[in-house]
Amino acid sequence: MSAFKEGVHWSMAGSPSAGNGALMRIAPIIVPHVAQPTLELWGDVALGAHLTHRDGMSTASCLAFAALLIEVMRMPLPPSGAWWIQRFVAILSVIEPLAHYQSRQAPIEFSGRLSTLITDYVIPALEQNLTVADACRKWHSGLTAWKRFLRCSTFWLVTAMTVNDFSSLACI
Fold it and tell me: What is the pTM (predicted TM-score) of this model?
């Protein structure tokens, strides 16, 4: 936002980052579209993502997450645990850019698309029942940030799903 305030065109004002900050702010953007999703939903999501994170992967992830949330809110019952990541990857793999992302440090030597990273590393970790801490240690990832995020998001997701409160689930 500071770049925009300094006169940078809005389309270039976002940080060139594939971080998750834009994704964390997507749920409220879809609220006006829940009853009747239209093409404007996808424009709102893409613009909302792009304003802070000027990166194709970030925008594609936000679009896939928005599609996932809309789909979940229209279900009569919550989906299985495995459905969430499988559906996200299915949507993302169709819309993500062809850009290749590199792992930042060993032991993962990865170059490719996010859907491939999730399929090759995250899904197997889930299938092996690795804890978040163990997976992060294995990947040399941001253990502290992930633990905080997962404790909070897991609590709210389980709470919302337990009472079939899809409105709260969307806000999460």
Answer: 0.72
